């Protein structure tokens, strides 16, 4: 089936006229309709418009850009003009919520569903090169979660084992890519929301340097930590995708005026002489033995390719989770204030303004969003700001300095992506601390603003993917992609496919 092709494979076939964009798009649509009832990865379907776009591309007959005619799915926080976008939250859709994702497809707005009148910079850039949007993928509500269980559309399932989560918050995108429902997908990473799902589902995902990609038109969770990226089937595809979306954006003042390299040229397969650090703090009590064994075996592979492996220390790692959750909760408290049921979203009957806010936000937001708003409001309140938020920002600076010091001695750092393979649905339902600790290995890079790549490096005895995390210094995406590509070329983990 042609929906299982990579970007580079599909591009070659499109350019040689062996397949058409319409055929490729229809193949992905057929796959979604065949398997998504089991996965619940796709929550808004844009199939009619996608096929029209594909026909227009076929009529032009030019496939000069590697992404022209390539179908993708976008996480349900990316604004697309005329396409319903809800962040998988009741507050941005009509009430009562849709019963399930399949019924949510191609419904007309009743005036209360949020339908953006503009495009995010990322989707605009993809549209400009001819990539074809198929619809939106499931996510934890406003990206708040590590399992895609906090969605008003229900949980997304892992295609390797549908009793397990796909990870979060970009679980819908990871599940869709792993199950070949699209050729690539968009995601966001705040504290691991691309890398952890990529690790759980056996695909490739990269958190970019903060400021490398534009956040304009993407619904915010924590503005100083959110980054834009995606999930692909291999590193080569990610290099192609990143080259298309990266770069300064006048509409996002946090993007940097730094030239975007041709990431594909970095994929030489040659990592001889590179120094790669192995942080002792990332192999702590609680790391699954199979995960640790797979990652240590991966370092041996990298060593065999000519890299030098060196044990290093990132001493403030132990404070990362506490620091991360104070900062994101505080920024969530600020960002969620805009969802009041007046400017957009649903409204509730009320006798006065205060009652309106109470009714709209109480019924519109899920439990996890409310929890983080309350934590953040407390941390920012008079008398507590200095003790919590300001102190967290000081520790954040120390964590960032750890990485700066480490990269004086090494070119890249490797570690597990997650302490365990994908956990079962509902496993952390009554243990919020355990859920928050899922970010223990992916939050430090977010606080430091450095890039980090997840690639498959093995499978557990129960046939669940295990992810290898490769970190680089700020603006060092070329290095992490080079290391990831070299490792991928020496192994075949990324070629494994789940049976759905």
Question: Compute the gyration radius: what is it?
Answer: 21 Å
Report the CATH architecture: Alpha-Beta Complex
| Strand composition percent | 5-15%
Q: How would you sum up the major sheet?
A: 11 strands, mixed
Separation, N- and C-terminal Cα atoms: 14 Å
Reading the helices and strands in chain order gives HHEHEHEEEHEHEEHEHEHHHHEHHEEH
The number of helical runs is 15
- CATH fold topology: Amidase signature (AS) enzymes
The structural class is alpha/beta
The unreliable regions are: 96-111
Order of adjacent strands in the largest pleated sheet: 1-3-2-6-8-7-12-13-11-9-10
Supply the CATH class.
Answer: Alpha Beta
Overall, the morphology is: globular
Number of strands: 13
**How many distinct folded domains?**
1
CATH level-four homologous superfamily name: Amidase signature (AS) domain
Provide the helix percentage.
Answer: 25-40%
Average pLDDT confidence is 94
Produce the secondary structure layout:
Layout: H1 7-15, H2 21-39, E1 42-45, H3 47-60, E2 71-75, H4 121-128, E3 132-137, E4 157-158, E5 161-165, H5 171-178, E6 184-189, H6 195-201, E7 204-207, E8 227-232, H7 235-245, E9 275-279, H8 289-304, E10 308-312, H9 320-335, H10 353-364, H11 367-380, H12 386-406, E11 412-416, H13 432-436, H14 443-448, E12 452-459, E13 465-471, H15 477-490
Parallel strand pairs: 2-3, 2-6, 9-10, 9-11
Antiparallel strand pairs: 1-3, 4-5, 6-8, 7-8, 7-12, 11-13, 12-13
């Amino acid at each position: 089936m042609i929906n299982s092709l990579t970007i580079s494979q599909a591009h070659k076939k499109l350019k040689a006229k062996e397949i058409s964009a319409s055929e490729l798009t229809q193949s992905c649509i057929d796959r979604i309709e065949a398997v998504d009832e089991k996965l619940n990865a796709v929550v808004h379907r844009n199939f009619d418009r996608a096929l029209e776009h594909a026909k227009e591309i076929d009529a032009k007959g030019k496939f000069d850009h590697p992404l022209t005619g390539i179908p993708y799915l976008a996480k349900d926080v990316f604004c697309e003009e005329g396409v319903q976008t809800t962040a998988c939250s009741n507050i941005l859709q009509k009430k009562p919520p849709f019963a399930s994702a399949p019924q949510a497809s191609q419904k007309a707005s009743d005036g209360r569903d949020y339908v953006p009148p503009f495009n995010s910079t990322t989707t605009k850039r993809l549209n400009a090169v001819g990539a074809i949007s198929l619809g939106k993928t499931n996510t934890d509500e406003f990206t708040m979660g590590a399992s895609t269980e906090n969605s008003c559309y229900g949980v997304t399932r892992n295609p390797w084992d549908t009793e397990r989560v796909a990870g979060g918050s970009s679980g819908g995108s990871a599940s869709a890519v792993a199950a070949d429902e699209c050729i690539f997908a968009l995601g966001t990473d705040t504290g691991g929301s691309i890398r952890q799902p990529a690790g759980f589902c056996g695909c490739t995902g990269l958190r970019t340097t903060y400021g490398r990609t534009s956040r304009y038109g993407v619904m915010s969770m924590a503005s100083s930590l959110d980054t834009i990226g995606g999930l692909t089937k291999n590193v080569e595809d990610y290099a192609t995708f990143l080259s298309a979306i990266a770069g300064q954006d006048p509409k996002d003042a946090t993007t940097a005026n730094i030239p975007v390299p041709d990431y594909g040229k970095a994929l030489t397969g040659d990592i001889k002489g590179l120094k790669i650090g192995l942080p002792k703090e990332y192999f702590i009590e609680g790391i699954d033995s199979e995960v640790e064994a797979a990652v240590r075996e991966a370092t041996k592979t990298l060593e065999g390719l000519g890299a030098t492996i060196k044990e290093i220390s990132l001493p403030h790692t132990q404070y990362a989770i506490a620091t991360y959750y104070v900062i994101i909760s505080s920024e969530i408290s600020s960002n969620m204030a805009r969802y009041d049921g007046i400017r957009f979203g649903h409204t509730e009957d009320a006798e006065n303004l205060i009652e309106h806010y109470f009714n709209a936000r109480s019924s519109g937001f899920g439990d996890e969003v409310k929890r983080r708003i309350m934590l953040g409001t407390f941390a920012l309140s008079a008398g507590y700001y200095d003790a919590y938020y300001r102190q967290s920002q000081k520790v954040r600076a120390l964590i960032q300095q750890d990485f700066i010091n480490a990269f004086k001695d090494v070119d890249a750092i490797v570690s597990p992506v997650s302490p365990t393979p994908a956990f079962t649905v509902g496993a952390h339902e009554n243990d919020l601390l355990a859920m928050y600790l899922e970010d223990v290995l992916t939050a430090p890079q977010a606080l430091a603003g450095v890039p980090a790549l997840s690639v498959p490096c093995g499978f557990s005895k129960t046939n669940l993917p295990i992810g290898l995390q490769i970190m680089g210094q700020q603006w060092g995406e070329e290095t992490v992609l080079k290391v990831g590509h070299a490792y991928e070329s020496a192994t075949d983990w990324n070629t494994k496919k789940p049976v759905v």
